[in-house]
Amino acid sequence: MEAPNPAVPWDRDELTVGDLAARSGVSVSALHFYERKGLIASRRTSGNQRRYPRETLRRVAFIRVSQRVGIPLADIGAALATLPGDRTPTAKDWRRISQAWHDDLDARIEQLSRLRDHLTDCIGCGCLSLRRCALTNPHDELAEAGPGPRTLLVEGLEPDGA
Amino acid sequence: MEAPNPAVPWDRDELTVGDLAARSGVSVSALHFYERKGLIASRRTSGNQRRYPRETLRRVAFIRVSQRVGIPLADIGAALATLPGDRTPTAKDWRRISQAWHDDLDARIEQLSRLRDHLTDCIGCGCLSLRRCALTNPHDELAEAGPGPRTLLVEGLEPDGA
DNA sequence: GGTTGACCTCAAGTTTGGTTCAGGTTAAAG
DNA sequence: CTTTAACCTGAACCAAACTTGAGGTCAACC
Lengths: 162, 162
Prior knowledge:
The structure is a homodimer of 162-residue chains. With 162 residues, chain A is mainly α. Chain A is built from 5 helices and 3 strands. A 3-stranded antiparallel beta sheet of chain A has the order 1-3-2. In chain A, α3 runs antiparallel to α4. The longest helix of chain A is centred in the middle third of the chain and has 32 residues. The radius of gyration of chain A is 23 Å and the shape is elongated. Chain A starts with 13 loop residues before the first strand and ends in a 40-residue tail after the last helix. Chain B binds a DNA duplex (30 and 30 nucleotides) through α2.
């Protein structure tokens, strides 16, 4: 009595967009959007409705987790594009593509920590000198990579304390 | 011979928008934008041109640093609005308003660190189970505050390992 | 006093990550 | 066989943080 019952959605081997939405917690419109962006793919029924392989559930979970970590959709899509197209991705595949996120997170945590410490030094003291302050000068230890504004100050002179 | 020379821009006590742009590294259009949003203010000359007090230089520096730290402009504006309007802000004023950023950064660093550690556990192992994985479940230790997607998964069941 | 560069305003465009709506089709249940 | 829920497309809209462009003014130099 526990045999596969095609009437119960999670026993079918394909999911409708509604099933996928319900089980991933992502709205149907967002799933359409991901599909337009190439992050997920579906086959179409004769009536032009989407059907997703179960594996898509994991892709969507990966997308949401990655977004949570702060990765833009375009980057997530690029990472997903490196998964094999001819077989279901394995644990090893997922491990590989998530390694990049891990490194990225490490770097961002590092940078934020430095920023936090400089905050105390620079804004905290009220100086915020454009000339001296490490915060306003992205050239030295503060990374130029990262999601911040592209350039902060190229060369600023601050001759007095005004 | 080192007396104040009004011909040299940084010896005048007001700055044109171009001066401010050059010295802050922020484009003129962005400065106009900040002004429309109320983050900075200017007086107008008889010819309707903007003139900024030197102090604006520090405000702009504060804005860029805050953005670097990931604070939205609206929040930066709200913080700047708490500065005294009747006098030039002191070191103490700046220290106070930057304290909030410091706390915010601490929290975000904490959250990112947890996220990173879970990444290794969850995506790294390839499971990414919607049911079990802490990453996909925002209810327990992973904060619901923060700049991530609003809700991740309300209740997802994953009956098999597909 | 004329040319040039900096300034002005307002409107529209850009990107990211979607949501909402209109108008129409499909599929499943009764 | 009808009704209703779920699905389809495409276009429009949202917010943030700006940039770009058009069309016009101002000011500084020679």
